[in-house]
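Sanity check

After download, print the first record. It should look like this:
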Amino acid sequence: MFSARGKRKVGLFKTKIKSHEELVASHQSFYNGEFEVLQMERKSFWDIFPLNLLIAYAEAPFPGEWKGIISTNGEKIVITQSKKMNATKHKKVFEFLVEDIDSYDRKWNEKFMFKNKISGLTQTNVNYFLKYPIFICTIGVCLLISPFAHMFHNGRLLNLTYKDEFGNEEKFLKLLNK
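Expected structure tokens:
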């Protein structure tokens, strides 16, 4: 929050959710009964080893990366893209059934493979060994072509990370795997 000289940094586009209750209240309208909610960050198509270190250091808003909230009651999942100035307000809403997920992997990040493409949420699933030569050969171009990557393949992948700030990730995963 403070720089080396003691002056306060202004985080214009960073909003911190103070409690789990704020998260629950932001998704309450999507459910009738009990549900669990977590903060999340959608990863971009170019989230590969050398580039993700630069992204983490620079905190640059690369295409396809955004913060949001994910919730489930065990039957359906709701993912909302947060607005920049207020994380509990929704810019986009994606609602689907747990049955729409073809596979789920937690090797490095959470990776959901859907049965069908969901426009604005899913992305192309390309092998990392193919991404490396493309990245090395076209460092600057990779950021320019990433919005058009969906033209090469009908993507069904959602790559994200959870932000378990309130200790409820285990309960969320139990509902998800119900």
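If your output differs, re-run the checksum step. Summary of this record's structure: The domain at 20-176 is CATH 2.30.29 (PH-domain like).
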